[in-house]
Design a protein that fits this description.
The structure holds 4 protein chains of 4 kinds.
Chain A lengths: L3 H4 L3 E10 L2 E11 L4 E6 L5 H8 L7 E6 L2 E2 L5 H6 L2 E4 L11 H6 L5 E2 L2 E2 L1 H13 L16 H14 L4 E5 L7 H16 L3 E5 L3 H7 L2 E6 L2 E7 L5 H9 L24 E8 L3 E8 L4 E6 L5 H9 L6 E6 L9 H6 L2 E4 L3 H4 L7 H5 L4 H4 E2 L2 E2 L1 H14 L15 H13 L5 E5 L7 H16 L3 E5 L3 H7 L2 E6 L2 E7 L5 H10 L18
Parallel strand pairs in A: 3-10, 3-11, 6-9, 9-10, 15-21, 15-22, 17-20, 20-21
Antiparallel strand pairs in A: 1-2, 1-4, 4-5, 7-8, 11-12, 13-14, 13-16, 18-19, 22-23
Chain B lengths: L6 H8 L9 H4 L28 E6 L5 H17 L2 E6 L4 H13 L4 E4 L7 H9 L4 E4 L16 E4 L2 H16 L3 E7 L5 H15 L4 E8 L4 H14 L5 E4 L2 H13 L9 E6 L2 H9 L4 E4 L5 H12 L7 E3 L4 E3 L3 H4 L5
Parallel strand pairs in B: 1-2, 1-3, 3-4, 4-5, 5-11, 6-7, 6-8, 8-9, 9-10
Antiparallel strand pairs in B: 10-12
Helix pairs in contact in B: 3-11, 4-5, 6-7, 8-9
Chain C lengths: L1 H4 L2 H7 L4 H24 L6 H27 L7 H17 L4 H24 L5 H20 L4 E2 L3 H8 L1 E2 L2 E2 H19 L2 H10 L1 H6 L4 H27 L1 E2 L8 H11 L11 H20 L4 H24 L2
Antiparallel strand pairs in C: 1-4, 2-3
Classes of the chains: A alpha/beta, B alpha/beta, C mainly alpha, D mainly alpha.
The structure holds adenosine-5'-triphosphate (ATP) (2 copies) and magnesium ion (MG) (2 copies).
């Protein structure tokens, strides 16, 4: 192990600037990465983290500033060049090739060969080895896309690790990983560091940063505002630096008290819902004025549950009753008519319409209501859009294409899309994935307020902390079956973890989820 | 059946030509059909055809659209039916390689005789294959190139019109109608087809003898009515002083007439149109006064084709090239023939 | 360094003329303008109102109408290879009915119905059966023209109906029918896409079909409608073409029109991937390509050379568009 | 995400089924036809003519398969056949080798232009190759002075005349190229990269794999194969006429898709393309034979209708197969 102080830093980025169509994304950004160091790179959504990384690795050309690797100026023009220079990156969105096999994804660009031809056997063995380091044992001949997102993310990591980088850049690798996988990843990162590899780690989860990183670079509005050892800042100070103002309350604390049920009848009652292949038998109820949580391990069927409630996936069995109206919901259209709203977990594939403006994206679900005698009421549309941009603090112009917004701001627009329909029940699937701490707090506060105003909310989140702090009641799914309910009194991360893992209900007055049936 | 001779009418009408004519061809008689060379060899080495009461024959048509080709196919089918023969027709849809494929597929079915209307002159190799299979081939309306297939050996004979002569006759007719002065635009048929190439040659060569007629533009209109109309519109706008149009085919002529009308001029008066094919529509146009003259290119090959086939089966001497006789139609005789036209 | 950073306002002021955007918006229009200027100088009588309206615009109008339909289909991320064949089919069917003595008031709508039905067929294959648009529309591309030939036996049928003559030679408000129709159709399409939700729905389906489905848009219906409208417009153009040559020509009517239309849409700066729609620029694209062709014809350039020029102009146009997009 | 992941899992499977379906339908059609038409259908001249006719389409379909696997399309192949066929024909007096080199070289040159514009300037393949369809044809016509070009060289015709096991050398050459292509797809880095680029070009380039060369190469290959097809055609028919290649690109595209290659790229099969092509072409022979039976005559206008309907039936069957399987799994 070398001492970073004696040898000079591995990477120095100084005074980097970058504009997109006249808008500054980076303005004097600086980042220094020492040897055998894991550096956190943090900032609000849109602060410029991904842009800085993409400049380092040659995806974007910088407008100004310099990049020094090992003290020598470098100017990579493509990811390939960066890789040849020892800089390997895992980009924010999972960027692999879904229809090729897992093995090929790991070896794309450097296939092992025998007599000039691709040596499949060696490749498969190599892939299995690379995945084994991440404690993953899967069929490497299957197409990558047939695995869930977390596995794909782990494959991307396995690929990057096997590339034997000097500098490994990880842009939000953990946003789709569960705790166990995060731990595995951290284990690998530590051993890499011990073998002399430096890393840049981006995450919006503060506790992760403190767990794995030594130093931190804070970006705000495209400028580096702090570069220091992480230990010298506490979480509150760190967030304050990120925001440029005193953080009122970091990560919205647990809600004061349970909201009372306003009505006896649930606004949404689900019983025995099944949807092939992963949802088998799920039951729950959502009451007006409450936030109902759904927890479960990855792949436990949470997303499928929400999708089939909303008519996005076919419901093969069971019933979904909205506001005691027996009419079945078969399509999103009918769901919207029944005053449901659904925020998908996959922003890119199921949320944004990239080249449409923020305005059109925001009012997409509202179009029927904005139409008077066949004509869209542009004035009202404008008013609503202005209103939501202000209310949610969206950093964007109304007529900007949504694709130009940072991830967090896109998410807010999508949330606004559904809020504008004034739903009776809001289905949220991972609403804060990839969202910075302050925006997350804002969104959770908003959810809290919406519930207080009488909306029913069904919230899926992989972040237990979020579930615990936001929900009045949590249904736990396991292998597509609702196995338990945890009510507000017993709600804690530990209790949830225990139930999720064991599938055993915590003893409680009304812990059997199917008991909800008796309500209707 | 093929009527003979147009030259006499041409000659008779020539006297009426304007004395102001400033070139020879404006007053000359219609040059008429060309005659087969006296020394045309006899088909001797082609596969023999047995004499039978009925035959199973095949006909490879190169494209079965447009009135002309349809009339040709119909004529072949009608005549076969009349004679009680079985006929199989393929349509290459304007595609040389499809025609080759068609012919091979026909050879595979071993007909007694094979009639081919070649798409281009260069399908000769497959004609040779028919010879190897022992099937006598008769070419109609176009021929194949000598270098690929030999007349009288690889195929029996070819029954064709003389396109060069057609172009020449059109030029004469045009010169006569215009009195030998004016600006002319020409519309050509399908790029590279021998009819288009030869008619152009005949027309332009003859026109050289008439300096008063200036050819201001030539465009390929692909035998399409709408295309000819578009092109004529554009050309008339760029050359407003045009006084005559030569269209190689009647469809293009009809398009040109429509374009002349759309340009606010009177076809047959402001602008004269001469065309070739001899369709009913064209003859009617002559009767109506919108077209000046038309050089026939008779599509009704059926009777002649089967007659030749029977002669060949009977062992008669068949020349390796048989020329079709085409008439010249103008205001003096169009009315008489319009009802028989295809 | 700091100097630069503190003067962003000035910098952007210098760059006020946003060339890339200008090229994207007005590139085709600029080429069109150049061609017009060239013709004014070098082509006799070009500026004659009769020429502009009754030759140039009238020749372009049918393709432009078809291109508008194509632009709708392309906006959904699809493509329609069958429009040319549908033009032929609708014209032939109408011609046959007219020749059979069916009153024009029945025969003409039937032509449009044929187009709509073809569009429905395409749309159904694409949206219900999930067949890739190019292959789905290849079916009618092949069979449609065949059917048109079957209907008329491959013959050109001359139709001497006053209504057909009116379609071809008639004048409304001083404009040829086809030009007048183009204007009406353009206004209608722009009106509908601007003022009703249809436009946004169309772009949403083309931009992200799954997202559109999740906000309650009937994506299959929207896609089908795009093909139906494109088919209907092609059907109507079939009538116009029938009127133009006063005859039905199954083999040649609408031949290659789909490629002309696609080229125009592309030159207009629309990506074939879907999610964008610009009717005005599509028409300018058609006018530009048509005038180019006519200019070459008028100046006696042989067809094969004209083809080379057309190909090169299309490449040049999309190359400039691409550059302007990159420069953003 | 769930829909997408599910798709990926089944799409390859579905296409594989589709491929087998294509082969099955092909075998079935040929069996039925030989029962109906007897020996004549199997006769040497019919088979050679059928396979020979397939050679040129197969060659462009082979190039098209790789292009489509990258998510692109090459509409220019029909025109390239004309241009290269003309160029090869003009060069044929200088010997067979020269003719082949000139033909393939011309095709490759046009392909390189397409490739540069698409891979380097990142223009849309559909439009670029549409423009090339225009200019390459114009150039071919110009070069030939709009006259049919005759192939002079005798040696070249060995491609069309010499037979091995009853089929022409041209056909065996085509088969050999398909075999090489199949190996290249599965066992070369290039082949795998072609699929990767078609699946997700952005990802592939972010993974540090140069995508430009790969994209360029498929257009180059497609052009070169179309050039070869032009020369083969010239050698088979002894000439190249000016109508050559009109609309052939769509025959190739249809064959590729029927063969189980996804138009959006990322999944594909070389053998499937050959099966798809043979299937779509067999219909011509059948129509001709059916006419010969003298019973119901398939009027030539119906041919296009029949071909369109046949394509429809084939793709509907395939989606039916895909759907049925999807439900079952
Ligand atoms: N391709 C682009 N075109 C236009 N603007 C862009 C582009 N990419 C990024 N931006 C803008 O640059 C800014 C920085 O974006 P970047 O993606 O770097 O943020 P980030 O810090 O990674 O945010 P997040 O935490 O949401 O990932 C944002 O304002 C974004 O809108
Ligand atoms: N085991 C699996 N096999 C295949 N696909 C999976 C699997 N697990 C998850 N997926 C898919 O990946 C998507 C994203 O997965 P994510 O990491 O969000 O898990 P998740 O949302 O916890 O899963 P779920 O919603 O099923 O509990 C899911 O919507 C699902 O469609
Ligand atoms: Mg980012
Ligand atoms: Mg999920």
């Amino acid at each position: 192990m070398t001492d970073p102080k004696t040898e000079g830093p591995l990477l120095q980025m100084r005074g980097v600037t970058k504009s997109f169509r006249g808008a500054r994304a980076l303005d004097d950004a600086t980042m220094t990465v020492g040897r055998s160091q894991i550096r956190a790179l943090i900032g609000q959504n849109g602060a410029g983290k991904s842009t800085l990384i993409k400049i380092l690795t040659g995806v974007y050309r910088r407008d100004g500033g310099e990049v020094l690797l090992d003290g020598r100026p470098v100017d990579f023009r493509s990811t390939a060049e960066a890789q040849a220079g020892g800089v390997v990156t895992i980009y924010q969105e999972v960027n692999l090739v879904p229809k090729l096999s897992v093995a090929e994804n790991i070896f794309l660009g450097r296939f092992p060969k025998r007599r000039g031809l691709v040596d499949w056997a060696t490749m498969r063995a190599g892939a299995r080895d690379a995945l084994a380091k991440l404690s993953l044992d899967i069929d490497v001949t299957r197409p990558l896309g047939s695995y869930r997102v977390a596995t794909q993310q782990m494959t991307a990591i396995a690929r990057a690790v096997s590339l034997e980088a000097r500098l490994l850049v990880l842009d939000e690798p953990t946003s789709s990983l569960a705790e166990r996988e995060v731990e595995t990843l951290f284990g690998v990162m530590r051993s890499l560091r011990d073998s002399g590899v430096s890393m840049v780690f981006v995450s919006h989860r503060m506790d992760e940063l403190y767990e794995i990183c030594e130093d931190v670079t804070v970006l705000r509005d495209g400028r580096t505002v702090a570069e220091e050892p992480l230990a010298s800042l506490n979480q509150y100070e760190l967030v304050s630096k990120m925001l440029g103002r005193a953080a009122e309350q970091v990560a919205s604390g647990a809600r004061a008290a349970a909201r009372p049920r306003q009505q006896a009848e649930p606004v949404l009652a689900v019983s025995g819902a099944a949807s092939a292949p992963r949802l088998k038998d799920a039951s729950l109820a959502v009451y007006a004025g409450q936030v109902q949580g759904v927890a479960g391990l990855l792949g436990s069927g949470r997303s499928e549950l929400l999708r089939s409630i909303f008519g996005a996936d076919p419901l093969d069995g069971g019933t979904v009753v909205v506001s005691s109206d027996a009419a079945p919901i078969r399509t999103p259209r009918e769901a919207i008519a029944a005053r449901l709203a659904f925020l998908s977990e996959d922003r890119r594939a199921e949320g944004i319409v990239p080249h449409l403006s923020v305005r059109d994206n925001l009012t997409l679900a509202l179009l029927p209501k904005l139409t008077r005698r066949g004509i869209v009421d542009r004035k009202r549309q404008k008013q609503i859009v202005t209103d939501y941009i202000a209310r949610l603090g969206i950093k964007a112009q109304a007529d900007q294409p949504i694709v130009e917004l940072s991830g967090g701001n896109q998410q807010k627009v999508l949330l606004a899309r559904w809020l504008a329909t004034e739903p009776a029940v809001l289905l949220l699937d991972e609403p804060t994935r990839g969202i910075d701490v302050s925006a997350k707090a804002e969104i959770l506060t908003l959810v809290d307020k919406l519930a207080a105003d009488g909306m029913g909310v069904l919230l899926v989140s992989s972040e237990l902390e979020e579930v615990v702090s936001a929900c009045d009641d949590v249904t736990v799914l396991r292998d597509g079956v609702s196995v338990a309910r945890v009510d507000v009194e017993r709600l804690s991360e530990e209790s949830l973890m225990a139930v999720m893992a064991s599938g055993e209900a915590v003893p409680s007055a009304d812990s059997a989820p199917n008991k909800d049936k008796s309500d209707d | 059946s093929v009527d003979s001779g147009g030259s006499s009418e041409g000659g008779a009408a020539a006297g009426a030509a304007s004395p102001a004519a400033n070139c020879a061809i404006a007053t000359a008689a219609d040059p008429g059909n060309s005659q087969p060379a006296a020394d045309t060899p006899i088909a001797e080495n082609a596969p023999k055809l047995a004499q039978k009461d009925t035959y199973r024959v095949a006909f490879s048509q190169n494209a079965n659209n447009g009135a002309w080709r349809i009339a040709e196919t119909q004529s072949m089918q009608d005549e076969a039916k009349r004679l009680g023969y079985q006929i199989q027709v393929t349509d290459a849809q304007n595609n040389q390689s499809k025609q080759i494929q068609d012919i091979r597929s026909l050879i595979a079915q071993k007909p007694d005789a094979l009639f081919v209307a070649p798409m281009t002159e260069e399908i000769g190799t497959v004609i040779g294959e028919a010879k190897s299979a022992g099937i006598p081939v008769f070419l109609i309306d176009r021929t194949v190139s000598d270098s690929q297939a030999k007349a009288g050996t690889d195929y029996v004979t070819t029954i064709v019109s003389d396109f060069v002569q057609e172009g020449k006759r059109a030029a004469y007719a045009l010169a006569k109608a215009t009195g030998g002065t004016g600006k002319v635009i020409a519309l050509e048929g399908t790029t590279g087809s021998s009819s288009a190439v030869d008619r152009k040659k005949g027309f332009e060569d003859a026109l050289k003898e008439c300096p008063g007629l200036e050819l201001v533009a030539t465009q390929d209109a692909d035998n399409q009515r709408a295309r000819a109309q578009d092109i004529t519109e554009s050309l008339l706008q760029a050359n407003p002083d045009v006084t005559a149009v030569y269209a190689q085919g009647d469809d293009m002529a009809m398009g040109a007439i429509a374009a002349i009308r759309a340009a606010g001029k009177v076809p047959g008066k402001d602008i004269l149109v001469v065309s070739g094919d001899g369709s009913k529509e064209a003859l009617q146009a002559i009767v109506d006064g919108t077209m000046a003259a038309n050089v026939e290119c008779n599509p009704r090959f059926g009777p002649k084709a089967f007659e030749v086939m029977k002669q060949y089966a009977a062992g008669d001497e068949v020349p390796t090239k048989i020329l079709n006789e085409d008439r010249l139609f103008d205001s003096s005789n169009a009315g008489e023939f319009v009802d028989q036209a295809y | 360094m700091t100097d630069l950073a503190t003067r962003p306002a000035e910098v952007s002021a210098l760059r006020r003329i946003d060339w890339p955007t200008m090229i994207r918006r007005y590139g085709a229009a600029a080429v069109l303008a150049l061609l017009v200027i060239f013709n004014i100088i070098f082509t006799e009588n070009f500026l004659d109102l009769r020429n502009i309206l009754f030759v140039q615009l009238r020749q372009a109008a049918p393709t432009a109408i078809v291109a508008l339909g194509m632009a709708l289909v392309i906006a959904t991320g699809g493509i329609d290879l069958s429009v040319g064949a549908v033009v032929a089919l609708s014209g032939q069917v109408t011609a046959v009915f007219l020749l059979d003595g069916v009153p024009p008031l029945v025969a003409l709508p039937i032509g449009i119905l044929v187009g709509l039905a073809a569009g429905l067929f395409n749309g159904t294959l694409v949206s219900r059966f999930g067949i890739q648009p190019m292959i789905a529309t290849l079916v009618l591309f092949t069979a449609g023209r065949g059917l048109a030939q079957v209907v008329t036996g491959g013959r050109i049928q001359t139709v001497n109906e006053p209504i057909v003559e009116f379609l071809g030679l008639g004048v409304i408000a001083g404009l040829p029918i086809s030009v007048f129709s183009l204007i009406v159709i353009t206004i209608a399409i722009i009106g509908v896409t601007r003022f009703t939700p249809a436009g946004t729905k169309l772009l949403a389906v083309g931009g992200n079909e799954r997202a559109a489905g999740l906000v309650g848009i009937r994506t299959k219906w929207v896609k089908t409608m795009a093909y139906v409208v494109a088919g209907g417009l092609a059907g109507y153009v079939g009538l116009l073409e029938l009127g133009r040559i006063q005859a039905s020509d199954a083999t040649n009517a609408g031949l290659n029109m789909e490629l002309d239309a696609i080229a125009a849409v592309a030159v207009a700066g629309t990506t074939l991937a879907g999610g964008t729609f610009s009717p005005g620029r599509t028409i300018i694209g058609v006018l530009m390509l048509r005038l180019l062709q006519n200019t070459l014809v008028a100046h006696g350039i042989p067809r094969e050379v004209a083809q080379i020029a057309q190909g090169l102009i299309i490449v040049a146009a999309i190359y400039l568009l691409r550059r302007s997009r990159d420069a953003r | 995400m769930s829909a997408a992941t599910a798709d990926v899992a089944t799409v390859g499977h579905r296409l594989a089924l589709q491929r087998r379906g294509t082969v099955a339908v092909l075998v079935l059609v040929v069996l039925l036809a030989s029962l109906r038409y007897g020996d004549a259908f199997y006769s040497g001249i019919n088979l050679t003519s059928y396979f020979d006719d397939a050679v040129k389409y197969s060659l462009i379909a082979l190039g098209m398969t790789f292009v489509i696997m990258t998510g692109g399309i090459d509409l220019s192949v029909g025109s390239v056949i004309l241009l290269a066929g003309v160029a090869g024909g003009l060069a044929s007096p200088y010997g067979a080798v020269v003719a082949v080199l000139v033909g393939v070289g011309t095709g490759a040159a046009v392909g390189a232009v397409n490739g540069l514009l698409i891979a380097h300037s990142r223009l849309e393949p559909f439009v670029v190759t549409l423009a090339t369809l225009l200019w390459a044809r114009g150039l071919g016509l110009q070069l030939a002075d709009t006259q049919t070009v005759v192939y002079g060289s005798g040696a070249l015709q060995s491609l069309a005349r010499d037979k091995i096991f009853g089929l022409t050398t041209g056909f065996w050459l085509m088969l050999l190229l398909f075999a090489i292509a199949a190996v290249a797809l599965k066992y070369t880095a290039w082949g795998r990269t072609v699929l990767a680029v078609g699946d997700s070009e952005e990802s592939t380039s972010l993974l540090g794999v140069p995508t430009r060369m790969t994209k360029f190469s498929v257009y180059l290959l497609s052009g070169a194969l179309a050039g070869l097809a032009g020369v083969v055609l010239g050698s088979q028919t002894g000439s190249v006429s000016m109508d050559t290649g009109v609309g052939w690109e769509l025959i190739a595209v249809a064959a590729v898709v029927v063969g189980g290659t996804l138009l959006t790229g990322g999944v594909g099969s070389i053998g499937g393309t050959l099966a798809g092509l043979l299937l779509l072409q067999v219909i011509f022979t059948i129509i001709n034979f059916e006419n010969g039976r003298g019973g119901i005559e398939i009027n030539s206008y119906w041919q296009n209708v029949v071909r369109g309907a046949f394509l429809l039936v084939v793709v509907l069957l395939q989606t039916g197969v895909g759907r049925g399987r999807r439900k079952a799994s």
